User: Fold Transcriptional regulator, TetR family from [Clostridium] hylemonae DSM 15053.
Amino acid sequence: MKDDKRKRLSVELLKQALIELLQKKDMDRISIKELCETAGINRSTFYTYYDTQHELLEEIEDDILKELIVRFQNLSPETGLQEVIDSVRTCLRYVERNIDSFRALLGEHGDRAFSEKMIAANEAVIREWSSFGSADPDAEKTAYLFATCGGTSVIKNWIMDDDRMSAAQLSKLLGTLICKGYMGIFLSDPDKNM
Assistant:
């Protein structure tokens, strides 16, 4: 039990240190020595849990993506507007609580592949909606691009904006776009989920 607490604390300190350093410099310029000094732990502790700083980064990204995905797993094209808005708001509140991590990962020194991972995670969730059918495969393909790339871009810009609209405002806007735009192509009667 004591070892579990020690491990969780060490890992959390390393994650916080990497996020702090990514806000200042590129990943390739962050050494394990600097990472451990920033975290206040010794290098042997780092190597107990990770082989490289890139492995730590990947774990941070995977944890964040899992948290984002779980907030959208219960949605389908038949989901009502308010439920979609609530799911988006829950997601954005998670982002706000972890804003430093998102800014570090998506910022100028972050992992350029993280945006692509967000898009892929988003796409994996919404691809399940295709079981509801679509009369037009071209419309479905365009909708995937809109929902994955457009949604990720909007959230990225929202994260980076110091004077951003509230999570509640953006949730309502995105929820409406999702329900009236994207989800609508999977339903024969798009007004059914309104």
In short: The two ends are 50 Å apart (CA to CA). The CA atoms of residues 159 and 169 lie 14 Å apart. The domain at 2-51 is CATH 1.10.10.60 (Arc Repressor Mutant, subunit A).
